[in-house]
UniProtKB/TrEMBL annotation:
Principal location: membrane
Keywords (A to Z) from UniProt: Ammonia transport, Membrane, Signal, Transmembrane, Transmembrane helix, Transport
Name of the protein this chain belongs to: Ammonium transporter
Topology with respect to the bilayer: Multi-pass membrane protein
Organism: Roseateles rivi
PROSITE patterns according to UniProt: AMMONIUM_TRANSP
Protein's UniProt keywords contain Transmembrane helix: yes
Entry annotated with the keyword Lipoprotein: no
Membrane-spanning ranges: 44-65, 77-97, 142-164, 171-195, 215-240, 261-278, 290-310, 322-340, 346-365, 377-395, 426-448
Family in the record: Belongs to the ammonia transporter channel (TC 1.A.11.2) family.
Amino acid sequence: MIKRCLTALALVALTFSLTPEVWAQAAELPAAASAPHFDKGDTGWLMLSTLLVVLMAVPGLALFYGGLVRSKNMLSVLMQVTVTFSLAVVLWVLYGYSLAFTQGNALIGGTERLLMRGLWDPVSGVFSPAATFSKGVVVPEIAFAAFQATFAGITCCLIVGAFAERIRFAAVLLFMVLWFTFSYLPIAHMVWFWAGPDAYTHADVVPALQAQAGLIWQWGALDFAGGTVVHINAAVAGLVGAAMVGPRLGWRREAFTPHSLTLTMVGAALLWVGWFGFNAGSALEANGVAALSFMNTLVAAAAAVLSWSLGEALLKGKASMLGAASGAVAGLVAITPAAGNVGLGGALVIGLVAGPACLWGVSGLKRVLGVDDALDVFGVHGVGGIVGALLTGVFNSPALGGPSMVGDWVTLSMVPAQDYSIAAQVWVQAKAVGVTVLWSAAVSYAAFKLVQVTIGLRVCEEDERQGLDITAHGETAYHK
């Protein structure tokens, strides 16, 4: 007992003998207790959502596209999707994440996260936090960066379908580097970058924080999971590419019959499943908004399947499996910007409208444009993305069952129903669509032109007739 008391007295004496300088140094040391608290449910949901988006691209989109082309080009499409996705992820780690999601200016981010530096401290084991949409709730930034990497990857992959069956493999990769850098990253920054809710501590800081955000975010445009960033952005690039590469040999003279609608259906099913991570994961938390996004994704896709099939039956006399699969994708595209921004009624209407709108996009609009968009990237993703983006402004209204939007980030108060203007919000949505279309078109044209004058865009006629599987990759998808 005496020994314990003497030990305690010695410790007290040692404590009081520490100099102020030592105390100051100790206070500056990062303690494990100061590490941010990450909810395991939010973190787990974000990582699962990331995995689901990977499923969308490889194998989902790869099989969806692969089944639509002729058998001699099956492997070339699989290869383009797989390698493009991988290329985008690597570029994301090198510089993409930093330019998209760090503070720079209204058009592009900065260099703070080049090579992903600062995401975590390997010595202390402390991970950097990333903001969600709730005050005091954060997720590991490294998980958020991984989630967004898959968005960049699948966006680039979507473009591949427009010029399938006739483009050089090297041309695809060079174009993707240019387009990813000068179109995807700026649009992602303009639409999605902001300081996060915890930064809005007082009304006095709001103007400065808003000025630091991306241009389209400053306008107040709503894009929950990528109607502009992903679908419209990629669709415009695909349309420009299809026009500049030129039509396939025999276009409008020969029937380009899909070689395996079974594989296309498998791909569409994987896309539908993965899309729940794409949309509901964009809530960044395992909460009610994620649940709303999840249900809206289910409802809109199902409604679009029915409306596309009905439209096809009325126009052609028969509803096709390809039409049903395309309808599901159309509904998923259209609900993407609206997933957490509309009520169930809005999701239902968006899906019902998206089906016939995209059916027109792949038929009537395609004839008007006169461009061989091989796998209807613009008809589905462009038209569906525009429809979804505009209708988000309509059905976000509380008067139509929508959740409204945050009007004051200091208090997280929503815009009251009586103050919500559908016309004003639709105008903001239209401006966001317009900027995305013009920006992507300009960058895509310049990028394709640069590729054309350096290494060339198109394979030779003999290689195209033989098929890209053999001529570009030395393989065949099927052996007779």
